[in-house]
Structures are given as C-alpha cells and as structure tokens.
Fold these 2 entries.
Entry 1:
Amino acid sequence: MFHFNPNLLAQKNDSVKVLVTGSTGFLGQYVVAELLSRGHSVWALYRDELKRRRSLNFLFSALHQIEKERLSWLKADILEIGDCWEEYCRMQPGLEEVDTLLHSAASLRFKTDVTGEPARTNVGGARSLRQLAKRHPMKIHLISTAFVCGRIQGKTVYEVNHPPGDFINDYERSKWEAEQVWHGEATILRPGVIVGDSRTGHCTGFTGWYTVVKGLFLLNQVLKILPDTVRMNLRIDVPSNPESTINIIPVDYVAQAVVRIMENPNLHNRIFHLTHPAPPTHGWSHEVICRRFNIRGIQFIGLDAPIPQPSNELEQMIFKQVKAMLFYFSNNPIFDRSFTDRALPELEVPEINEAMINRLIDYAVETHWGESNLN
C-alpha cells in the first residue's frame, strides 16, 4: 500500500537534467515546455527533423529565451540508444550529466501492423531504455495509459500494478507489457484519454476522443443536403449506457502533473492516475456535441444490446460514420486517483464544461483535424 508523508509532499527537487523521449509528440512538447519553465534542463530525443522544427515553433511561442537556452536536442532511436549511449555522450557534451529519464515516446496504433507496431516501439523501447538505465543509472518516469487495466466496464480501477487483462486493442496490451519491464523501478504515470489544451484547445494529434467528435462532424457534413426532419431523427443506436463516462483529460494538466511528480523524489517509483475526477458522461457529451453540429436522434441502448443493421442507403451511410466511434463506448472504467490527489493537492484539474468542449472542437475544425499543422 502507498502511504504518503504529508510533511514531504511540498518538497521540490533541485533542478534536474532530463532526457525526454517522445519530445516532438503532443504530450512531449507540453512536458518539455513545463520542465523548462520550471528551471530544469532538457535533452529532447527526436528522430524526424521536420517534427523537431514544429516542436521548436511550439516552444518558441510558449517560452522565454532564457528558458530555451536550457534545451538541447539528441537525434537518436530509442531502440538503439542503449547500445550507442557512450558514442552519443562523446558527440554531445553535457549528455553524460543526464540524471533523469522521462519516457514519453509511444506508438498509438491500435492494431499490430507489418512493422510490429505498436509493440515494437512501446515494448521494445522500454526494454532498450531499461538496458540504458543499467549502464547509466537515472531516475525513471514512464508515461503509460490508465487503460492498461483492460476491459473493466463501470468498475473502479486503482493505482496498482494490474495482472494481464482483457485488452481491447494491441496498444493497451503493449503499454501494459512496457509497465512490466519497469515494474517497481520507475514512476508510472497513467493519463486518461488526452485531449487538447483546456485554455486554447490546441492539439496536434486528433485520435482517441476526437474520433467520436470527427465522426459526428463528418456525419453533419454528409447530412447538410438533407432536410431537418432527417437530421433531427437519425435513429442511431449506441451500445452503451448514457451514465457511463469517458475519462478525457486536458494535455496541459497532464504535463503539469507529470513534472510536479518528477520534482518530488518522495513520490518516485509509484503509480499515479492522471485522470479526471469528474469525467463527462456519454449522455452529457452526446447532448453537447450534437447541439454543436445540429443533429439529433442518437440514443444509448445499453452495453450488451445488439446493434440494428442498416436497412437502406442512408442508414448505411450513417452507420459507416458511427462504426468507427463504437470502440470508445465499450470500456468505461472509473479511475481511482487517491495517490494523485494526495501528491498534488494544489494542482487544480480543469473543469470539463460545454465551453471547453467547444474550444476543443473549434481548434480541431479550424486546423482541419491536424492537416494545417503539417504545413
């Protein structure tokens, strides 16, 4: 059992020198910015030069020059870094002083592809970095996912190591296996479904929860030519319960929580759920998003109810858009975050309200679901 000493929680570690994998990813960019803004030095590992430049643009807009001076870059592959560490250190003065590793790199593929992803990066990367840590001891912090619990519908999931579960996809399985590589020797940070910045809506990866929103957005585009009598009576049945929740959490909160836990050595080598304490229900989310896109007629028919097959061309068109969203209604655990609440008593979790949802949608639509970010 994890017991906190309340007298130690407010302690902040001295500035650290952090190697961040996945630094050009959505969460990675926010974590790097948070680390720099709080006085730490960062070595940002990257592979793709274009992604590095995009990350620099983000950091330039978010930070002061004095903070950016503590940022260094390391071009490397996490699958090879264990074997090449000494060579990298010879080529990159100061790299040998790194004392902390934040492993944020991940493949988000749900189904295994011909290259072996997501296990290739998520499990292979964890093993490679595990070997590196044996040669160059560091404090280890691993970004995982709250959904390593597998399929646990409507039950409470605690901040503990889980046995292998009924995983919904290969991504969840690979993240669970990565946790086992580090079990007991790393801080495990488990976010919920990460969405955009709570203040601006900024996002660079429109997967996860955005799949549901984009499905309804595209459905709205398809139905624009049809009369309101159709738009307001879609007759879409979703196999879930309206009171079930999807645990979305803004990226800015996750980055802040990650860095504050890293800063306190008394919290290391524990497991934390970086989830929302009051996630939105499917029923509420449905009302907000459908109101935004001016469509009606979606009803929740219970988790185990059969899905009626489309009987005409219009229903087939609607069903095609809805089918991609069904995965996100099939597993809705309740995440206990007792350890996180005790560790971060002063870090407020942004409220998920209609204004925030509309900010997230506005940004997604205005950037054409990330296509504008590629320019």
Entry 2:
Amino acid sequence: MLALAACDTGDGKQLRPYDPADYPQPAPTTEVDDSVAAAPLGADAVVTPTPAPGAIEGFTLTAPWRNGESIDAQYTCDGLDVAPNLSWGGVPDGTVEIAIAMVDDSAVSDGQPFVHWAIAGLDPNELALVAADLPDGTVQALNFFGDVGYGGPCPLAGDDAHLYRFSAYALNTELTLADGTLATEFLEA
C-alpha cells in the first residue's frame, strides 16, 4: 500500500544532517517492491502508485490528504510537525500487527531514501492511528533526523517538490524491536 504526497516549503529550513553510515543498508528483498511511477511534481502533475509485487488487494492506507497532493503544513517543520492520523482497511486474515513507514524518495543518499517515520505494533483490528495518542505496544524507529518517532517534511529551500511515500505493512508475526532501533534495521525487519 502506497500513499504519496509532496512538500516544498521554500522557507530556507534545512534537514538536520545525518550520516548514512549510521544507517546500514537493508538487505535486498524480492518480496516487496515499493517502486512508484511518478511525474515531476508541479501544478498539473499526477502521481500514481504502482502496486508492488505481492501487494494485498484491498489493503488500504488513508492519510488526511489526497494521494499526490501537498502535505498540510501542520505535519511539516513549517507547522506543528505532528504525525498525521492514519487509517487502514482491508486487513488480510492472519495479520498480527500493522507497521507504517514514511520515506522521502527525493532525498536519497548512498541509495537510501530519507526515513521520516517508521512505526510498528499497531493493532490491525483498531483500523486507525491517532498519532497524538499512540496506543500501548507501539514502537518507533530512530528516524534520519536522529529522533525517535515522526519527523515531518522539511526540504531544503530551493529544492524541487519532494515525493513522500507512506507504506503500510500487514505483518503475520510480531516484530520484536525496541523504540529507537535504527530506521533501516526497523524497515528491514
């Protein structure tokens, strides 16, 4: 499940520096391909997610904006920088927990997209995440800002619009990760 959004603030704020060496590359996988077909983002651009091989038909992730539209400032470094409320549906039978990741496919270093958020331990029967009130049992990765939890879009001034990918995972086993696990290790698991 993919959801895409763009953000270009042009306000001069910059991403906090990170060292890609602190985030080992995940092992390649043939089970999931999160590729997307994307046009350059502009006023008339349309971004259409390409279903990943092995994608689960009917499994959906919903954010508070339409696919391909700009992310509201409250979810960015220009606003409150709060994580969005999300919901999901069509959870497949046998799902033990839901995991969600947000990456910036426009900010890539050494082949690794910038991870803004990775969270797991979400109850598949709840069908929604109120990010301001995380349920017991959730764990969050150390994002590329160096913080545990969500870090909203904050592209460099003058950058073209960035492409953010939200991915939802229906896991058939419980992840045994701790808060603060490196985002790349989190996503690999």
